[in-house]
Every structure is written in C-alpha cells, then in structure tokens.
Amino acid sequence: MLENEKLKAELKIYKIKALKEKVVLIGVVLLILAEAIFLLSIFKKNFFTKPVNKPYVAVININKTITVDYIHTLTSKMQKLLKDKNCKEYLLIFNTPGGSPSASDEFNAFLKWINKKKKVNVYVESMAASGGYYIISAIKPIVANKNAVVGSIGVIMPHFVIKKLADKVGVEEDSLAIGKYKQPVSLFRKFSDKDKEYLKQHLLLPTYDNFLQTVSKDRNISVDKLKKYADGKIYVASIVKGILVDKISTLIEFKEEIKKRVGQKTEFVEINLQKKKPFGFFNIKLTSDIGEFLQKISQ
User: Fold this and answer.
1) Pairwise CA distance, residues 85 & 54, whole Å
2) What is the CATH number that goes with domain 56-153+191-270?
3) Deepest of 6, 30, 47, 136, by most Cβ within 10 A of its Cβ?
4) How far is it, in rounded angstroms, from Cα 253 to Cα 280?
C-alpha cells in the first residue's frame, strides 16, 4: 500500500516536471518564432523593397538636440544620397532648439559643401534656435512658418550647485588638480568672479564671436547690425523676415514650389535615420521576472 502511494507521488512529481519542461519549450519556441517574423520583416524591407525609380526629394527631419553623434548620422545619410541619381534635392525640416556649437559649425560647413553638389532646401517648421539657427544660416533662402521660432544667437554654460543636497547625504568633493585654472567649474560651489571672467574670456566670448562671424558672413549682414538680434533673444519668424529669415511659407506651399522647379511628378521621400539591429534575437536579455520564472519552473 505504501509502495503504491510512493509510486503515485513520484509519478505526480514526474508529470509536473514534464509539464514545466513543456511550458519552457513552448516559451522558447514562441520567442524564436517571434524573432523569425521580425527578421523576415527586416529582410523583406531591406532587400525586397524597390528603390524609388523616379525623381524624388529626400526629406530629412532634424528634430533632436544637435550633438556630434547626431550630425555624424545626418552627414553620413546625406552623403549616401549623393550617389542616388533619382534623388534630386534635399529638404531639411527643422524642429530643433540647438545644441553643441562645434557640431553646429561642422554641419553648417557640410551643408555649404554638399549644396554645391546637390541642392539643399531648409524649412523651419517650429524651431531653429541657437545651434539650429547656426546651421541653417548656411543655406539661402531660409524659409519658415510664420510662427516658427528662430534666433537665440548666444552662448550659455549651464551650471548647477548641489552643495546643500550633498551636505545632507554626506557627499564631499575631493578633486586633485595641477594648474590654477584646471577646475573652474564644480558642482559643489558657485562660480567665483575669477572663474566667471576666465570662462567668459576663454570659452563663452570666443564661441559667441565665432557664432556671430559665421552668421554674419552666411547672411551677408554686418556684425554691428546682427548684434541687434544676437543678444540671446528668440523671434517669431514673421517679425525677422528679411533679416534672419528670407521667406514666410507653409510646408505644403514650399513643397509645391520645389515641385515646380524639379518636376510635378517629383515625390517627397522621408529618410529614416534610425539605426536598425537586424539580429535582435541574439541580443535579447530576459527581465528579472521572466528569468526567475523560467528558472523556477525548470527546476
């Protein structure tokens, strides 16, 4: 009798273990199936989608903070499109608050270079401020929505002081530096007058002057005249037409204007700047909950 009960208990444990193994197997199969579908969609899009076989304008939405990495992505994509004979022109649509001065300067120079090979059109949809305006000054005409924000010609260096918070949680600064100007910025103290003067003279003012000189030359506006609009203020495009902006329009109207020049059958193709990862299955990381679940049921 005891032997029968023992056998029944062992059989029950065996069935439960077998069921767990089936659940794990089904889960793995579903993951592989989902990944296979994903890979197939990527493969189909990359290898079976027909290229645009008629004239088109490459539309690129510049809608992020300007960084060096972002500019590298933009320039790389635009250079590849140079080789496409069906790509007749570029249309850059700006919706950016700006960003890195050096990245903005690099993209400004790049647009001047590539505009000599394939025409670049710029349109400010909502904003091209600070570094964004630094960039678009490279191209004429600058076309903008009447309510778009432009300007903010200036330089800023954000600085936060967390000393009071650090004192509460017991955090101290213990930096070691050689050279009296090596650490003009610290989160644990305010700028001294000496620090402010040093940073203004060696960083902010030279960068601001570079900004002014570039826009002045690009827009054919004297530095003295430009300074009236270069104190960090932002402007609605309609107010500075003829100064910071050349033409007020809407995107649909601007596209129609481009089509008249390039051809009425011209398409506007939006360029995807996202970097794809076609083999995502091999990079899957289970969350702690799923990992613990699979570990438990497989025991």
Assistant:
1) 9
2) 3.90.226.10
3) 136
4) 41
Tokens describing residue 57: 């304008």
- What pLDDT was estimated at residue 279? 45
Query: And the tokens for 90?
Result: 């570029």
pLDDT at residue 256 greater than cutoff 80: yes
CA gap 137, 210 in Å, rounded: 13
Q: What residue type is 240 in one-letter code? A: V
| Res 118 pLDDT > 80 | yes
Q: Is 130 tagged catalytic?
A: yes
CA distance 84 to 57: 11
Q: Of 166, 198, 160, which is closest to residue 182 (Cα–Cα)? A: 198
Two structure tokens written together for 75: 């320039």
> For 151-196, what is each residue's pLDDT tens digit?
999 887 787 777 787 777 888 777 777 877 777 877 777 878 788 7
What's the pLDDT score for residue 125? Answer: 98
Enclosing H/E stretch for 124:
strand 120-129
DSSP letters spanning 180-248: TTS----TTSPPPHHHHHHHIIIIIHHHHHHHHHHHHHHHT--HHHHGGG-SS-EEEGGGGBTTTBSEE
β-partners of residue 270 are 59
**Annotated catalytic residue within 104, 130, 152, 216:** 130
Instruction: Output phi, psi for 4, to 5 deg.
Output: -65, -40
Instruction: Show me where the domains of the chain are located.
Output: 2-48+277-297, 56-153+191-270
Distance of alpha carbon 222 from alpha carbon 213, whole angstroms = 9
Catalytic residue from among 116, 182, 265, 275: 182
The whole-angstrom separation of Cα 142 and Cα 133 is 10
Q: CB of 57 within 8 A of CB of 88?
A: yes
Which residue in 154, 134, 158 sits closest to 232, CA to CA? 154
